[in-house]
């Protein structure tokens, strides 16, 4: 008996050692968890979630090992109670078994916390464990002298060995962790840098459980109310097994001699009680479910609003680097993943946790032996949960990234559907989307596999607990140590507790999932633009003199390519400056700098002598209007599109602007006039119509500075004529920078600059440039000779 007991205990010990060391190693080997910032090496690592998980796991495995040993010993016929008491009497300490177990549990909790704290604490814990082992050895000697049973000695001896090993384990774990921390800190700061680069050079804040849950902070009142309801509904649920047990044992199977009438009455009473509990439970679970879901919706709505306003404030270069599909996905999908994690999961976690605690208290009150047996399955559940959680976190990042790629493909295809159609490339686009979806599907399949395996493992483990309880409890009932009713309620409690533990591990998985999905969301939230949109000077009067001095520029997305190289240009108030030159020479880039979408890499731009960089960007953009080659309209009515820059404009103003822009006639011809919807990006209008709406939009703003980027070059000569007429009215008495593809349209400009390879290579009036023999003369000659547009439009202008 002694040897088999020792073998059992040693086996359990080995399991425990494996469990703790594996869990410490695995958990701490996980790279780039949501770590605290690695700013300061003296920072305590105890707040790290994986350390918490490690401590919980080791505590649980220790506790269940002890429990399993005790139960196995008592199943093998030993009087465990007497053994434990005799051991404790060795300390001349008279206490009950429950106290002893409590002390043991406390001890293992302390040692697990020690494992996760600083190495110094671990060492302290290890040495105190060693001292405890020594004391035990002395007690053992005393027990031996008193002639206690050999079995007691064996168990106590094993306990001593175990204590020593636990101490050593604590030290080793502490060391391992502290070594890992250094590495993980390195990794964390490395990944910070990566995110840094993505977020445009600003360090993102770390994503922790705390930060994730912090999103729900404004909903605290709601959540608190919901939690109260949750406790009531859980209590109702937990009362159920007891009541059913009472019914089965006390009422239905009660004293055989009782009159069946009395029994029926008792049964009715019990059923009524049960029904009342169910109704109350139903009400409270309604309140709980409603409030938690409401809080979740509010959290996600707030998160979306914050994220959107953070995104829309980003610099233009941010949108060069991030695809629309990606940003859309962050807004739609990532936020949804976070939503449930911070509210519903908290609710479920609290509920499950409360039910587990309550259930444990209740079953311990019913039968401590059976409870210990049941607890033996806990480490298995927790271990599986931890592995699953790690997996989910890693996968959720990859899964969300795959979703982004698929969304990108779809978004690109739909917004370019005309191009796709005209190249008859629908099958290819479908294939491309297939490929992208396949990727997310492949990851989803793995997730599904993990989810299924996890669910069934947890379920089976729980059922094993039930089997164990039935086996041992059945034996107790047969031996007359336990009533049938107690066993019934115990069984039901076991089912509830096992279900809750399974649910808790499940929640852990989805929390990890949310943590994976949230890192990018938080990075975007934290990525504040280098220049706030509206900050700086707001000059009272704008004359409109612009001066570019020695401006060089390369796009942030392609820093190695110098797009503008030392451009100097003075634009006098009210003058018209034209830029021309080969495509790709950097003309539109000058416009982008004047709009302050980008800041020059070198050199400066001044407005009336004031550096543009010191002027409030939002204010400045209200003084400028841009009419681009392909105007972008919004999917709303023509009136709203014209009034986009001045939403308060009266109908008369809108009509006047449309009339000046040569748009009134065609708008009135639509059945719904100014209320006509234009479709996404204005697809329901012709190019010339769109352009005239865009000119009316610019007119309504009455800008000081007008920027025209090949405003007519996409039009046929008929509509070019009406659009050019509108533009000429728009240009009157404003500082204007005009880029023209057709040189005939810029003849009258006060200054013409020829741009080539990012430099201004010629400047002067049309006459001056024609007199010289340079690029301008070549370009004009080419256009005059060319058969198509240039000559035609020139003729159009002349005919006017
Ligand atoms: N957003 C951008 N990111 C990176 N490079 C760009 C971007 N926009 C334009 N470029 C590059 O800058 C150069 C000048 O472009 P642009 O100013 O549009 O020429 P254009 O004179 O035809 O208007 C081109 O080589 C182009 O590839
Ligand atoms: Mg251009």
TrEMBL record:
Name recorded for this polypeptide: ABC transporter
MF (Gene Ontology): ABC-type oligopeptide transporter activity; ATP binding; ATP hydrolysis activity
One Pfam assignment: ABC_membrane
Membrane topology field: Multi-pass membrane protein
Record-annotated ABC transmembrane type-1 domain positions: 224-513
UniProt superkingdom: Eukaryota
Domain ABC transporter: 546-782
Gene Ontology cellular component list: mitochondrial inner membrane
Entry keyword set: ATP-binding, Membrane, Nucleotide-binding, Transmembrane, Transmembrane helix, Transport
Record has Magnesium as a keyword: no
UniProt KW RNA-binding keyword: no
Originating species: Emiliania huxleyi (Coccolithophore)
């Amino acid at each position: 008996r002694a040897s088999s007991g020792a073998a059992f205990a040693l086996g359990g010990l080995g399991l425990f050692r494996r469990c703790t060391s594996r869990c410490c190693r695995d958990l701490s080997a996980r790279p780039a968890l949501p770590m605290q910032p690695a700013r300061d090496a003296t920072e305590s690592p105890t707040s790290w979630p994986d350390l918490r998980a490690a401590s919980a796991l080791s505590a649980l495995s220790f506790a269940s090992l002890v429990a399993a040993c005790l139960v196995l010993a008592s199943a093998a016929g030993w009087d465990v109670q007497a053994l434990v008491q005799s051991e404790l009497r060795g300390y001349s300490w008279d206490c009950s078994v429950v106290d002893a177990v409590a002390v043991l549990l406390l001890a293992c909790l302390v040692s697990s916390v020690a494992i996760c704290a600083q190495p110094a604490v671990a060492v302290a814990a290890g040495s105190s464990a060693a001292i405890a082992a020594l004391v035990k050895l002395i007690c053992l000697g005393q027990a031996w002298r008193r002639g206690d049973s050999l079995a007691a000695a064996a168990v106590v001896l094993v306990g001593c060995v175990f204590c020593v090993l636990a101490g050593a384990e604590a030290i080793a774990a502490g060391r391992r962790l502290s070594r890992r921390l250094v590495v993980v800190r390195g990794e964390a700061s490395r990944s910070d840098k990566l995110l840094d680069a993505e977020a445009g050079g600003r360090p993102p804040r770390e994503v922790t459980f705390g930060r994730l849950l912090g999103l729900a902070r404004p909903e605290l009142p709601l959540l608190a109310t919901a939690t109260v309801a949750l406790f009531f509904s859980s209590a109702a649920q937990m009362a159920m097994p007891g009541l059913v047990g009472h019914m089965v044992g006390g009422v239905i199977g009660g004293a055989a001699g009782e009159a069946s009438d009395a029994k029926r009455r008792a049964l009715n009473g019990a059923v009524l009680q049960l029904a009342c509990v169910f109704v109350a439970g139903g009400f409270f679970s309604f309140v709980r479910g409603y409030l938690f879901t409401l809080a979740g919706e509010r959290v996600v709505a707030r998160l979306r609003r914050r994220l959107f306003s953070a995104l829309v404030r980003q610099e233009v270069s941010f949108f060069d680097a991030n695809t629309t599909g990606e940003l859309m996905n962050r807004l739609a999908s990532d936020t949804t993943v976070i939503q449930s994690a911070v509210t519903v999961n908290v609710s479920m976690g609290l509920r499950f946790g409360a039910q587990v605690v309550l259930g444990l208290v209740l079953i311990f009150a019913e039968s401590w032996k059976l409870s210990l047996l049941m607890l033996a399955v806990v480490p298995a559940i927790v271990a599986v949960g931890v592995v699953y959680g790690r997996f989910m976190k890693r996968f959720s990042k990859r899964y969300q990234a795959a979703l982004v790629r698929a969304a990108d493909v779809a978004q690109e295809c739909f917004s370019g559907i005309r191009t796709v159609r005209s190249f008859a490339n629908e099958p290819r686009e479908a294939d491309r989307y297939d490929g992208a979806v396949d990727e997310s599907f492949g990851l989803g399949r793995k997730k599904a596999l993990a989810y299924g395996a996890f669910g069934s493992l947890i379920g089976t483990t729980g059922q094993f607990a039930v089997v164990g309880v039935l086996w041992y409890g059945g034996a107790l009932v047969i031996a007359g140590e336990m009533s049938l009713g107690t066993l019934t309620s115990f069984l039901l409690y076991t089912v509830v507790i096992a279900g809750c533990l399974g649910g808790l591990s499940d929640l852990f998985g989805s929390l990890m999932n949310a943590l994976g999905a949230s890192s990018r969301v938080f990075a975007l939230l934290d990525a504040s633009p280098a220049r706030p949109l509206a900050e700086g000077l707001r000059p009272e009067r704008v004359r409109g003199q612009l001066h570019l001095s020695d401006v060089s520029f390369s796009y942030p997305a392609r820093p190695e390519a110098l797009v503008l190289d030392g451009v100097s240009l003075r634009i006098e108030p009210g003058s018209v400056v034209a830029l021309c030159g080969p495509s790709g020479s950097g003309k539109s880039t000058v416009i982008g700098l004047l709009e302050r979408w980008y800041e020059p890499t070198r050199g400066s731009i001044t407005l009336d002598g004031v550096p543009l960089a010191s002027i409030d960007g939002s204010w400045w953009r209200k003084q400028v209007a841009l009419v681009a080659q392909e105007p972008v309209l919004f999917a709303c009515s023509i009136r709203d599109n014209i009034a986009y820059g001045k939403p308060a404009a009266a109908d008369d103003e809108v009509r006047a602007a449309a009339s000046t822009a040569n748009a009134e006639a065609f708008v009135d011809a639509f059945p719904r006039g100014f209320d006509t919807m234009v479709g996404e990006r204005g697809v329901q209008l012709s190019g010339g119509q769109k352009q005239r709406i865009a000119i009316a939009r610019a007119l309504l703003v009455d800008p000081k500075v007008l920027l025209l980027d090949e405003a007519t070059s996409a039009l046929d000569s008929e509509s070019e004529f009406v659009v050019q007429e509108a533009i000429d009215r728009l240009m009157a008495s404003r500082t204007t920078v005009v880029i023209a593809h057709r040189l005939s349209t810029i003849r009258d400009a006060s200054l013409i600059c020829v741009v080539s390879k990012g430099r201004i290579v010629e400047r002067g009036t049309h006459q001056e440039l024609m007199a010289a023999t340079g690029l301008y003369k070549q370009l004009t000659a080419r256009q005059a000779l060319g058969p198509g547009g240039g000559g035609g439009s020139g003729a159009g202008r002349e005919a006017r």
